[in-house]
């Protein structure tokens, strides 16, 4: 997938989530432990959103590419994000969601890990 396609998928996910009432905090947060595609706020909950895009699913669906290894990297990067933003994970409600986009179909999976 090209950077252009990835950015377009993240734009689509961001727009959809904002329409659902979430507020954008950060996009493409990078650490030595990994990258967070989108970080948003849903009420008082800080939500890390992993965006997966597939033009077609003949090599597997978008959601199948969110593996346990990928979730571990997201957790590690999310921890750095929280520290960088002076948020205490013990007292801040947190959630990891996935936006899976296949062609024009968008699926929002909440609290995946």
Account of the protein in words:
There is one protein chain. This protein is α+β, with helices and mostly antiparallel strands. The chain has a single domain (about 5-110), classed as Trna Endonuclease, Chain: A, domain 1, CATH 3.40.1350. About 30% of the residues lie in helices and about 35% in strands. The chain contains 2 helices and 5 strands. It has helices spanning about 5-20, 70-85, and strands at about 25-30, 35-40, 45-55, 95-100, 105-110. The protein has a 5-stranded mixed beta sheet. Strand 2 and strand 3 (about 45-55) form a beta hairpin. The longest helix is centred in the N-terminal third of the chain and has 17 residues, at about 5-20. The two termini are about 25 Å apart. About 25% of the residues are buried. The mean pLDDT is about 90.
Low-confidence runs of at least 5 consecutive residues? none
Rounded mean pLDDT is 88
Rg, nearest Å: 14 Å
Contiguous helical run count: 2
Strand content: 35-45%
Helix content: 25-40%
Physical arrangement of strands within the biggest beta sheet: 1-2-3-4-5
Q: What is the domain tally? A: 1
Short summary of the structure?
The protein has a single domain (3-109), classed as Trna Endonuclease, Chain: A, domain 1 (3-Layer(aba) Sandwich).
Draw up the topology in text:
Layout: H1 3-19, E1 23-31, E2 34-42, E3 45-54, H2 68-84, E4 94-102, E5 105-109
Parallel strand pairs: 3-4
Antiparallel strand pairs: 1-2, 2-3, 4-5
């Amino acid at each position: 997938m090209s950077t252009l396609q990835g950015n377009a998928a993240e734009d689509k996910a961001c727009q959809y989530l904002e329409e659902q009432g979430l507020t954008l905090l950060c996009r493409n947060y990078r650490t030595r432990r990994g990258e967070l595609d989108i970080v948003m706020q849903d009420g008082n909950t800080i939500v890390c959103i992993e965006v997966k895009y597939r033009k077609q699913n003949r090599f597997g669906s978008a959601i199948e590419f969110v593996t346990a290894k990928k979730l571990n990297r997201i957790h590690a990067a999310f921890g750095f994000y929280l520290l960088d933003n002076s948020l205490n994970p013990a007292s801040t409600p947190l959630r990891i969601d996935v936006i899976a986009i296949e062609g024009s179909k968008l699926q929002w999976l909440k609290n995946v890990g």
